[in-house]
Structure formats: C-alpha cells, structure tokens
C-alpha cells in the first residue's frame, strides 16, 4: 500500500486529497449557452434538392426519373403540409431547435438493445509509466479525475467548448478576459466575430448521475445530481461506494484506494435472503455458512 501511495503522490496529488478542480476557467462554463443560435428549419425546396443530389449517384436514369417525380409530388402535396406544421412547431419551441424532439425520440423510442446500439463506451491506452497500470492504482486515479471533472463542471469552472477556426485570435487569454464581460445573451455573437463557434453544452449535466429508465413506448432520461455514491462493478458483483461526500471533505486519495481495494481483491458478496442485506467475507467457513443460510431460510419460510 505504501508503494501505491507513493505513486499517487508523485502524480501530483497531495496526501490531503486531490486538487478540487481541474482548472478554473475565467469564462463561465455556460457563458455562451443563452445566445446559441437555433438551428433554422431548411426550406422544403432545398431539402428536396439535397435528397435528389444524394440519390443520383446511386440510381440509373429510369430509377432517378421515378424518384424525382415522386419527390416533386411530395413537395407539392403532403410535404408542403408537413413543412408548415414543422415551422409552426418550431415557433412554439423557441427554447430549442426543431430537431431536438425527434432526435431524442429516435433513441428513447427505439426498442433495439441499448447496450449494443446506443451506449457509448471509452477505452484507454496503457499508462506510459508501468507503475500506474496496476488496476487498483489506475481505478483510483481515474475515479478522482472523473470526480474533479464533475465538480469543475458543476461549479461553472469548466472551459466552455468552443470550435476555434482562428485560435491565434480567439483561443487567447486576452479574448477570454474580454468575452467574459459580454452578456450571455450576446456572447456567442462576440465569439463569432473572431471566427470562434461555441458549442452546445446543454447535455453535459447528464454525464454523471444519469440513467435511462425503461418506460412503455418511450424511455426516460433521469438524472439525480444529489447522488453521492460510486458504483463499482467487478466480476459480476456491484459495490456501492459512498465517495463524493468524502471528496468534498478532501479525504486523501489513499483512503479512496482503500475503499476500492476490497472490490478488486478476493472478497465475496453473499446475499442473505432473510435480512435482505449484502455481507462481505473472505473466510471460507463464514462464506459457506452465509450461503447455506441464504438458501435454506427461504425454503424454510415456504414450508412453514
């Protein structure tokens, strides 16, 4: 344990706990959000043209003429009516863009398996320093870094996402010191004047404490920002670690490492049905007794 703690200290964390934030941006995280332009509804004629241009390389002459005929019939008929409905709906929802609702519906109404089709995942290369690749050390470092990111975002210190086409002018301390004083209702346009394009960050809050709740016909995205626990999964077992409270109190990183250690080493959770609790044990005899009680007690209740 001492060796692992030394590794963590050399990585830049103090024994009193990791630095609270990743950084402190002088431009608030959501500074540009209020002035982001809404995605305009394209003209129906332009949509038809783009559709036909996309189809032309894929079809022979006869197929394309038929497709072109059907597209123009759609444009003059039901397409015109649908377009008017879309424009009216867009005017009633000025807080967002017209594509938002259908975009979420596309995912949340889909009945395809979530894990294979929609869930994003991340993979990481091995750390250049081999001593950091110990599973417990790496899990500790990643956990602390993720929580620091979360706290930086929630405190409004996370650097806003901006696409810089001329970073020599826009990605500078001088520009940031100026743009932070521009009202949020105008700040996006101030960035636009120097060829910088702030991006939408409205869904960042779902990076943590969020899940997808199964519902009939359409699932629901749920976020509980008051949650304080970390879920650790190991060999089919789930460990609920009350971690975030400790981080706020600057508990040392070695303490977190100690909390994660039982889930990585040989500790066996046994579910005892009679008290609906989870026990952990490393003793073979105790493990066997808990297992026997957990199996026999429900049978006893049924027979009784």
Low-confidence stretches: 1-18, 245-250, 266-304
Name the CATH class of the largest domain: Mainly Alpha
CATH T-level topology of the largest domain: Monooxygenase
Rg (CA only): 27 Å
Mean pLDDT: 79
Q: Which CATH architecture of the largest domain is right?
A: Up-down Bundle
Number of self-contained structural domains: 3
N-to-C order of helices and strands: HHHHHHHEHHHEEEEEHHEEH
Instruction: Tell me the total number of β-strands.
Output: 8
Q: Find the structural class using helix and strand composition.
A: alpha+beta
Short description:
By secondary structure, the chain is an alpha+beta fold.
List the helices and strands and how they pair.
Layout: H1 2-10, H2 44-55, H3 61-76, H4 78-92, H5 100-108, H6 114-117, H7 135-154, E1 162-164, H8 167-170, H9 173-179, H10 187-192, E2 196-198, E3 210-213, E4 220-223, E5 229-234, E6 237-242, H11 244-248, H12 253-264, E7 268-272, E8 277-281, H13 284-303
């Amino acid at each position: 344990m001492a060796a692992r703690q030394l590794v963590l200290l050399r990585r830049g964390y103090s024994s009193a706990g990791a630095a609270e934030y990743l950084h402190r941006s002088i431009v608030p995280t959501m500074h540009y959000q209020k002035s982001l332009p809404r995605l305009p509804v394209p003209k129906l004629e332009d949509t038809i043209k783009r559709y036909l241009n996309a189809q032309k390389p894929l079809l022979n002459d006869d197929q394309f003429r038929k497709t072109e005929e059907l597209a123009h019939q759609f444009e003059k008929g039901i397409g015109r009516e649908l377009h008017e409905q879309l424009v009216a709906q867009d005017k009633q929802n000025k807080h967002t863009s017209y594509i938002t609702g259908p975009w979420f519906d596309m995912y949340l109404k889909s009945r395809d398996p979530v894990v294979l089709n929609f869930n994003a995942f991340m993979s990481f290369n091995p750390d250049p320093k081999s001593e950091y690749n110990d599973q417990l050390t790496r899990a500790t470092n990643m956990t602390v870094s993720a929580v620091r990111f979360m706290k930086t975002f929630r405190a409004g210190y996370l650097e806003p996402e901006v696409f810089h086409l001329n970073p020599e002018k826009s990605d500078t301390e001088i520009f940031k010191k100026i743009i932070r004083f521009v009202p949020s209702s105008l700040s996006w346009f101030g960035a636009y004047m120097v060829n910088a394009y702030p991006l939408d960050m409205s869904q960042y809050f779902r990076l943590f404490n969020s899940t997808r709740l199964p519902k009939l016909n359409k699932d629901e995205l749920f976020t509980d920002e008051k949650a304080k626990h970390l879920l650790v999964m190991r060999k089919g077992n789930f460990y609920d670690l009350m971690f975030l409270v400790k981080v706020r109190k600057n508990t040392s990183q070695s303490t977190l490492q100690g909390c994660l250690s039982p889930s990585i080493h040989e500790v066996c959770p046994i579910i005892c049905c009679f008290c609906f609790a989870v026990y952990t044990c490393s003793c073979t005899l105790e493990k066997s007794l808990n297992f026997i009680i957990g199996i026999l007690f429900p049978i006893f209740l049924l027979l009784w």
